[in-house]
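Quick one:
INPUT:
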C-alpha cells in the first residue's frame, strides 16, 4: 500500500513536466497596407483551432473611383486561414495573378508554419519553373560533356 502511494506521488509530481502546451499557428496579419513593412511585418496573431494556414493577398492597382491614369500601388493583406479558404482564394486570384505593372492584378499565397507569411514572394510556381530550367540545363551540360569524352 505504501509503495502505491509513493508511485502515485511521484507520478503527480512529474505530470506537469510530461504535459506539453499546444499553441496554435501564428501568422502575420494586416489589411490593405501599402507595403510589407510596419503593420504587416510587426502584427502577429495566434490563429484559431481550424486555421492551419497563413494567407497573404497582394493587389496592385488604383483605388476605386480614382480618375483614369491614377498612380498604382500595392495593397497587402495577411491573415490566418483554413485550408478551404486558402484553396478558394488561390482559385479566385490565379486568373488575375499576372504581375504586369500596367494592369491591375491580385495574387495570393498560402503557407504553413509559424510566421511563414513574413515575406511576399512570387510563389511556388515561379520556384518550380526555375528548378526545371536548372535541371534541364544541368542535364544538358552533363550530356554534352559526357558525349565529348567519347
Amino acid at each position: 500500500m505504501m509503495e502505491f502511494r509513493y508511485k502515485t506521488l511521484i507520478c503527480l509530481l512529474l505530470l506537469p513536466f510530461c504535459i506539453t502546451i499546444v499553441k496554435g499557428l501564428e501568422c502575420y496579419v494586416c489589411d490593405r497596407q501599402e507595403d510589407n513593412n510596419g503593420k504587416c511585418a510587426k502584427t502577429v496573431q495566434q490563429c484559431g483551432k481550424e486555421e492551419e494556414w497563413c494567407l497573404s493577398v497582394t493587389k496592385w492597382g488604383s483605388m476605386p473611383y480614382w480618375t483614369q491614369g491614377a498612380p498604382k500601388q500595392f495593397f497587402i493583406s495577411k491573415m490566418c486561414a483554413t485550408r478551404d479558404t486558402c484553396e478558394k482564394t488561390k482559385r479566385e486570384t490565379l486568373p488575375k495573378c499576372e504581375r504586369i505593372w500596367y494592369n491591375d492584378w491580385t495574387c495570393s499565397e498560402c503557407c504553413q508554419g509559424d510566421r511563414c507569411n513574413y515575406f511576399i514572394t512570387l510563389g511556388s510556381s515561379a520556384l518550380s519553373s526555375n528548378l526545371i530550367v536548372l535541371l534541364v540545363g544541368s542535364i544538358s551540360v552533363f550530356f554534352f560533356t559526357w558525349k565529348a569524352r567519347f
